[in-house]
Amino acid sequence: MKQLLSVEVFFDFVCPWCLIGQRHLQAALLLLQREQPQVQVQLQWRGVQLLPGLPASGLPFHAFYLQRLGSEEAVRERQAQVRAAARVVGEDIDFSRIRRMPNTGNAHRLLQRATGLVDASQLEALLAQLFIAYFHQSRDLGDSRTLLDIAQRRGLEAAQVVDCLRDDGSPFLDGAGRAGSAVPRFRFNQGALIAGAQPAEVLFAAMIEALQEVERA
C-alpha cells in the first residue's frame, strides 16, 4: 500500500544554507526511496523572500555583507564557514564571483508560476538551475531578462511567465508567515518545522517519524 509523505521546504534563492539544505534533502529522499519504496513523496517549495525591502536592482554583494556583518574579518569567517559546509555536500561556492545581492521577488514568482505549468521533475530542474545561476554562474536573479532566459531554457514559454517578472521590486510574501524569517526550514506531513540545513540522516529520521505518526493516528 502506498504511503504519502508531504514535504515542504521554506527557502530563499540567495541563502547558501538553502542550497546546502537542498542537497541534504536530496540525499534524505534517496535514503527514503531505498528504505521505504512504497512511500509517495509530494514535494513543495515555499518561497520566503528574506530581504523584500531590497531595491529592484539589488545591492553590491560584498558591500551588503560588509554592512551586515560589520567587518571584513567577519565576512571572511562567515563565508569560510559556509564554504566548508557546502563542500560536505559537493558544492564549491566562490563568493568572490558574486556581484549582486538581488531582490528575489521575481525569482520566487517565477518558481510559483512554474509550479502550475510543469511536472515535478521539471520544477526541480528549474529550481536547481536558479541556484546554479546564482551561486556558480554569478548571474543576477533580480534581472528579469536573466530569469526569462533561465525559464525558457527549462522549457517554459515567455508568454507563460513574463507577466510575473516585474521591475518594481514588489515583495513576494507567500510562505513567510509559515516559516518565519529563518530558512531553510522543512516540514513533513504538516508537522513541526525543522530549522537549518540539517544533515540527510536527521531529515530522513524526521521523515520516518512523520510516517509513523500517520500510522499511529
Topology, element by element:
Layout: E1 3-11, H1 16-35, E2 39-47, E3 59-60, H2 61-69, H3 72-88, E4 100-101, H4 105-115, H5 120-135, H6 144-153, H7 158-161, H8 176-179, E5 185-188, E6 194-195, H9 200-216
Parallel strand pairs: 1-2
Antiparallel strand pairs: 1-5, 3-4, 5-6
What would your notes on this structure say?
- By secondary structure, the protein is α+β, with helices and mostly antiparallel strands.
- The chain has 9 helices and 6 strands.
- Helix 1 (16-35) crosses helix 9 (200-216) and helix 4 (105-115) packs antiparallel against helix 5.
- The protein starts with a strand and ends with a helix.
Short summary:
The protein has 217 residues and is an alpha+beta fold. It is built from nine helices and six strands, in the order βαββααβαααααββα.
Q: What's the order of the H and E elements?
A: EHEEHHEHHHHHEEH
The residue ranges in which pLDDT falls below 50 over 5 or more consecutive positions are none
For the record, what CATH class of the domain at 1-48 and 175-217 applies?
Alpha Beta
Q: What's the overall average pLDDT, rounded?
A: 94
Q: What is the helix tally?
A: 9
